[in-house]
# Entry
Amino acid sequence: MALKYWIDGTLYPKDEAKISVLDHGFLYGDGVFEGIRAYGGRVFRLDQHLDRLWAGARTLMLEIPLGRDELRQAVLATLRANGLRDAYIRLVVSRGVGDLGLDPRKCPRPSVIIITDTISLYPGELYERGMEVVTVSTRKNIHQALNPNIKSLNYLNQILGRLEVNRMGAPEGIMLTHDGYVAEATADNVFSVVKGTLITPPPIAGILVGITRNAVLELAAREGVPAEEHLFTLHTLYNADECFLTGTGAEVVPVVRVDGRPIGGGVPGQITLRLMKAFRELVQQEGAPID
Ligand code: PMP
# Structure
């Protein structure tokens, strides 16, 4: 059975799920999105994803044409219609159809799209052996110009980073702030462990404040692992005892080499492994039931 995608209240077979070329989401990247996961019939932290979607839309003065609970129900109904219990969900709100100028006032109705599909993850061995990442030369946008917490349809900053990552043959890459501090990976947040303390860059580093990041900080508190949010340099990262990345798609993935420098013993660290385990348990326990 072909997957069905939801556009403005109607489910279309995947191949027929289309939007206009005059949609400003397409013409200008004017819109917001979320990437969400369902595990074992539950949607992980759906409300937090909806909060972030609504917050970005508010800043963009983009009126989401349905209520929060309606969208919540539509996500669950789309998963049910597709018979999916473990899934990746992409929510998109675009400015909608307008003319060729960029004025959003010419777009009378934003479009809402719900894509539910299966997910292809990093290979399992990366979670066991750990991954090697590289630093890219493309810097993060400064948050004063474009706040990265607006998860907008314009992802070119991250795509420029990703192109470098691909050229270097790595699975992910680290982006620095304009003044050279570690910010985040192209689609994941970054953590290091130094002398038993978890350290992750603060929102002011121009990062997307990830929902997985926040879940890991909660788990660290629960596990009694001290955690701090502050800026750190590549020098700190190269000399850290452990490193890992977090994200909706990646979950918690150990990093064992950064720019050719082995981190810790060159194997996933103990705190990383504890948090990976705790995160895997958490996603099975919590979440909005699909049925
Ligand atoms: N940073 C960026 C740039 C991202 O796109 C994402 C989402 N893939 C993340 C961090 C991680 O955020 P989350 O845990 O909410 O998926």
Q: What stands out?
A: The domain at 4-117 is CATH 3.30.470.10 (D-amino Acid Aminotransferase; Chain A, domain 1). The radius of gyration is 19 Å. The pocket of 4'-deoxy-4'-aminopyridoxal-5'-phosphate is lined by residues 35, 158, 184, 187-189, 208, 210-213, 246-249 (CB under 6 Å). The longest strand covers residues 31-39.
